[in-house]
Specification:
Number of strands of chain A: 4
Strand content of chain B: 5-15%
Oligomer: heterodimer
Largest sheet of chain B: 2 strands, antiparallel
Radius of gyration of chain A: 20 Å
Order of helices and strands of chain B: HHEEHHEEHHEHEEHHHHEHHHH
Distance between the termini of chain A: 20 Å
């Protein structure tokens, strides 16, 4: 199990060209990304640059962070619809604490992270101990957290804290005159941690086992209840982290921030090769899922003649193709 | 404790429509206590007015969508794209009518439409039906998980609606179209006749033929139902198509009510309200037994809750919080553990899948 998951996560990286069946979704995702990015680079002048690639990460860091948490939830066979609202609540609470109450970021950031994890913990406990579908509980969580945002304020709150302005405008220089933002650093750090969690820890193996068959996981003596609660706690934590990245990116707290981002995150995870039935998927695939969604968005921006709603249509189509491929893949493995 | 009383009480609470009706009753009672005028219905210009009429009228789209969704959920499916279909249907109708304002004589507006009204309605409903069938085909023919199949349309649908309206909010300047969502017939809102009609047709088709039983069989065990000769794929596809159609009808009512088509906001989050309505009504998300009446009651609970919040002087922003807490309490009360704890046997135990 452990070796298999490690290979599933790092397969293409350790250079095993004889790809195994289970690596196919990930390989397809990476291939699609290269095709899209390369194709756009061929078509548009000045698209195929290192900085433009990094811009994908800069503009979608918060989506990546959200999608990482969502990956664990989906691999375990669950779903978390509350992520967008938790992001919005995080931006609201940080803005209120710093602007209204004069808290320092060093205090406000840990508080909102704890809050996000707490919301996830509460939902996980309800899902596990009352045996209610994750769908319903996180839906209620979505309403509740979005509603709490409205209670705090209906207006957008601009953050003029020095630290926030410093962090959001600072560009970390890289080679060849490229640069990234702190958000990218946060996203990449979380990605590394998530890969470690998924493929090298007991927790990660239990998540895959629950997704494969919860009943078998219980019978195997795995700590299923604890792990399920932890999965939603982690997702809540990631959403809060994404909320902080979103606050850096937007520079404000607003109740209507990040609406519908749960669907973008789910789409990125699925396009990244994770099965929505659970039990199979990789965190690194999610990175490429996010990059694909980002590339589509920037292609449409670059083109200029296409309206922004085409983004949704194309991402929907990709989601469709990804799902159909997954079905074909599932059928062929069952026969083989 | 008196044994027969407890026994009959237990039998009463086990009836599928007991809990939804009890919740609705409690909500209405709360309203009566806080506002003695709540139940008064007045006649104004030959139309009925009052809080109850308002709840029924505003709840009509949700009731219709919930009934369609009930059939899908009964097949152990889900349709989260209904809100997008509401937007698409309204957009198609508005695009067919065409958004030109033609003034006549400087005072009143002239009713101009590019396409006759029956064709407008047929066109919008046809598109909605097609999108529903598309969902159904993905689920029953391609074998996709329902939540994903409909997620695709949820993601794409608003884009499609925007495409139809070309990114604008199309205002409808054709007054006969307003009748659908705003009109009155014999003092009663037209939308209620539509709701009743949809309900009657669905009830007749599912309860006066074996179709309803087939749908339940598919929801309980698709493989076994197919082996017994039920055309599971066709019926599943049809359920999704009907759900799309219901969302389309709701889209017509909504766009007629607000006299415009807004690709971004029409029917936003209505899928969540509809799912809650179905669950509150007593249809299990794990499929099988369904109750159309329960879903209608569920929709009325949600609409009453919304109206109660708005009327009780609480600020509108509390709406979501109250709704969320309410949903959590109700679903926790419906959980097996709590039922066993308070001495009620669980009606059924479904697998804990999303």
């Amino acid at each position: 199990m452990s070796g298999a998951s490690v290979a599933a996560g790092l397969g293409p990286w350790i250079g095993r060209l004889g790809l195994k069946r289970r690596h196919l979704p990930l390989a397809a995702t990476i291939g699609l990304f290269l095709l899209l990015f390369g194709g756009a680079g061929y078509h548009f002048d000045g698209f195929f640059t290192a900085q433009n690639f990094l811009n994908l990460l800069i503009d979608n860091a918060f989506l990546l962070i959200t999608a990482i948490g969502m990956t664990f939830v989906i691999i375990s066979g669950g779903i978390d619809l509350s992520v967008g609202s938790v992001i919005a609540l995080t931006t609201m609470v940080s803005a209120t604490l710093m602007q209204g109450h004069g808290w320092s970021p060093s205090l406000a950031i840990p508080v909102v992270l704890l809050m996000g994890a707490g919301i996830g913990l509460a939902m996980g406990l309800i899902i596990q101990y009352f045996n209610i579908q994750a769908f319903i509980v996180t839906l209620a969580g979505m309403f509740l957290t979005r509603g709490l945002c409205y209670l705090i304020s209906l207006e957008s709150i601009t953050i003029d804290n020095d630290f926030y302005i410093e962090v959001s405008s600072y560009r970390i220089p890289l080679l060849f005159e490229t640069s990234i933002t702190w958000n990218v650093v946060i996203g990449m750090a979380l990605l590394v941690i998530a890969i470690y969690l998924a493929h090298f820890t007991r927790f990660g193996r239990t998540v895959y086992a629950i997704g494969g068959s919860e009943q078998s996981a219980v019978l195997m003596g795995l700590p299923v209840p604890r792990t399920k609660v932890l999965i939603y706690t982690f997702s809540g934590f990631c959403s809060a982290m994404a909320g902080i990245a979103f606050t850096f990116y937007m520079g404000s707290g607003y109740a209507l921030h990040a609406q519908g981002i749960e669907m973008d995150a789910i789409a990125a995870v699925v396009i990244g090769g994770t099965l929505l039935t659970g039990g199979s998927g990789t965190v690194i695939g999610t990175l490429f899922g996010v990059l694909i969604c980002g590339t589509i968005q920037s292609i449409i921006t670059y083109d200029g003649t296409l309206s922004s709603w085409w983004t949704k249509i194309v991402i929907g189509l990709l989601l469709l193709i990804a799902c159909l491929l997954q079905r074909i893949f599932e059928r062929s493995t069952r026969r083989g | 404790v008196n044994a027969p009383v407890v026994d009959s009480l237990r039998r009463l609470t086990r009836r599928s429509s007991f809990w939804p009706l009890a919740i609705l009753g409690l909500l209405l009672l709360f309203n009566l206590v806080t506002n003695s005028q709540f139940f008064s219905i007045t006649v104004l210009d030959g139309h009925l007015y009052g809080n109850l009429i308002d709840i029924l009228n505003r709840g009509a789209p949700l009731m219709i969508i919930s009934m369609g969704l009930t059939l899908v959920i009964a097949t152990h499916g889900i349709d989260i794209s209904v809100g997008a279909v509401v937007a698409i249907s309204g957009a198609v109708a508005a695009a067919l009518i065409g958004g030109q304002l033609v003034m006549s004589g400087g005072t009143g507006m002239q009713d101009v439409t590019q396409v006759p009204l029956p064709l407008v309605i047929l066109g919008a409903l046809g598109v909605a039906l097609a999108f529903g069938a598309w969902n159904g085909a993905l689920v029953s023919l391609a074998g996709m998980q329902p939540i994903i199949a409909t997620l695709i349309l949820l993601v794409m649908g608003r884009g499609v609606a925007q495409l139809i309206t070309e990114g604008q909010i199309i205002t409808i300047y054709y007054s006969p179209y307003y009748v659908i969502g705003n009109g009155f017939l014999l003092g009663i809102p037209v939308s209620l006749y539509i709701t009743a009609g949809v309900g009657a047709i669905l009830w007749l088709v599912t309860r006066k033929t074996a179709l309803g039983m087939f749908i339940e069989a598919i929801g309980i065990n698709p493989l076994a139902s197919r082996l017994t000769g039920i055309r599971a794929r066709t019926i599943t596809l049809a359920c999704y198509a009907v759900c799309g159609l219901c969302a389309g009808i709701a889209g017509l009512i909504v766009s007629s009510d607000v006299k415009s088509a807004d690709g971004n906001n029409a029917g936003l989050l209505v899928e969540l309200d509809a799912i809650l309505a179905v669950v509150l009504g007593g249809t299990s998300l794990s499929g099988g037994k369904f109750t159309l009446l329960g879903s209608v009651i569920g929709a009325l609970i949600i609409q009453t809750l919304t109206n109660t919040i708005l009327m009780s002087g609480v600020q509108a922003q509390y709406n979501l919080v109250v709704k969320a807490v309410f949903v959590l309490i109700v679903s926790i009360l419906q959980a097996d553990k709590v039922r066993n704890l308070i001495g009620l046997q669980s009606r059924r135990r479904g697998p804990a899948s999303p």
